[in-house]
Amino acid sequence: MKPRDFADHLDRLTDLLTAGGWEQLDLGFAGPEIPEQLTGIGFRLIISPDRRALLTANWRATHASTEFQSLDPHDPDAAAWRAHADNLPVNILIAAAHAATAQPPGPGPFRLLREAGWTKQPPRATGPDSYATIVSDPAAARSATATYLSAPGYTARGPWLIARDDLTASSGARAFAHTTPTAPGPVIIALALTDPAA
User: Does the reported pTM lie above 0.85?
Assistant: First the structure.
């Protein structure tokens, strides 16, 4: 059985999103038909009002896994961006949900991180064909790392990793997020900058 506070936090996330026009999708499970593998798991699918973003929450007592995925209502097979968050609190997830539906998406994350006082480190090699640029907050409790894939004649942006060492889950698990290369800058900013006490 899920601890009470875990259930309350997932319910709060659901309530705040649905109050903002998001719609919880019916999974078709009810009462005794709930599969045994979902016992002790809080699972939600919630879609944005414009049908362009889907939130999937798969929360357990010791781990909260939440994913944002872009959707194209006109082309269901279009490549989607994703942002996956582990053990982040409700208010950060709500900020990321608003950012996922922001139009236009706004400036890129490097500029906004620098404006917030974060420091950009020199690029460092992470492999024979890749390197990373790390931006960290003044207290060194948070960082955002952009990876790049390089080969002769081209450089391509890879995924982002956001570390939130200013947060500790009740189980002691690390709080972090990672995205696909094309995740919008405002989503990366929301995951990196949102104050957990806000």
Answer: yes
